[in-house]
Amino acid sequence: MRLKNKDILGIAELTPEEITSILDRAKEMKKIVLGNSKKVHYLKGKTVLTLFYENSTRTRVSFELAGKYMSANTVNISASSSSVAKGETLIDTGKTLDAMGADVVVIRHGMSGAPHILARNIRASVINAGDGMHEHPTQALLDMYTIRERFGTLAGLKVAIIGDIYHSRVARSNIAGLVKMGSSPVVFGPTTLIPPEVEKMGAAVAPTIQAAVKNADVIMGLRMQLERQKKAYYPSLSEYTQFFGLVPSVMALAKPNAIWMHPGPVNRGVEMASTVIDGDRSVINEQVTNGVAIRMALLYMLTGRE
Ligand code: CP
Question: Does residue 227 line the site of ligand 1, with CB under 6 A?
Fold first, then answer.
């Protein structure tokens, strides 16, 4: 099916049918990611630019690989080494990229809504690769893909999301997507890091970590976003780990076939124990692989292949 908008700005704008269609297309793309010859010509002649105003490993590299695997022209622009550093506005930067023939601009920005401003002002499709504390739609899509791949469905699953919900665009996008797809997200973390809007979005707030993870199908840890914390939300990281850390004794309360997820990067031993990260029920590396497949699907669909 064709996506109704020219851009991917948030899970909030996608219908359940569009999400299903993206996940189905990603399933085909994953065969290419896992194949011996990672080269198809679906995006031959198309140009994909990544414009990152914040640091990234997974998202930026996976968009670049997604474009390259499909034969697109790909260019990475780091804000710190571009004319942004000379004072150029976001809109002027976008119009410049448009004038060079960009078909898709992938943007990560510290300000919520920056991708939306760009999308309104340029002809190219815009993909939000994370905007402030608002949304990270491609992360949620790869997370939903990973869950659906394991359980065959998203409907009826209990997904426990633990940690710094307040600063997490990953949590907001996942809650929006999981609710649309019929899962039951449950959140838990320090009360200072649980924003009231999550209940309005359809997530339950658990009273204890045990209640959050009990009989969960999925436990998703979130990074303590120390770079976004302008004031003290928690006395110390060691106390955070003591009361909110995802350690084996906590994970044991989940269902016997439950999986452990984390969007990365992980603060090892802070929000999640190393034995959990590296254990056989962790799908963290699978999430990374699926991230390439999801981004291939989005580039394919936005450039008019379907
Ligand atoms: N999960 C995620 O967005 O990781 P990066 O910051 O490495 O892109």
Answer: no
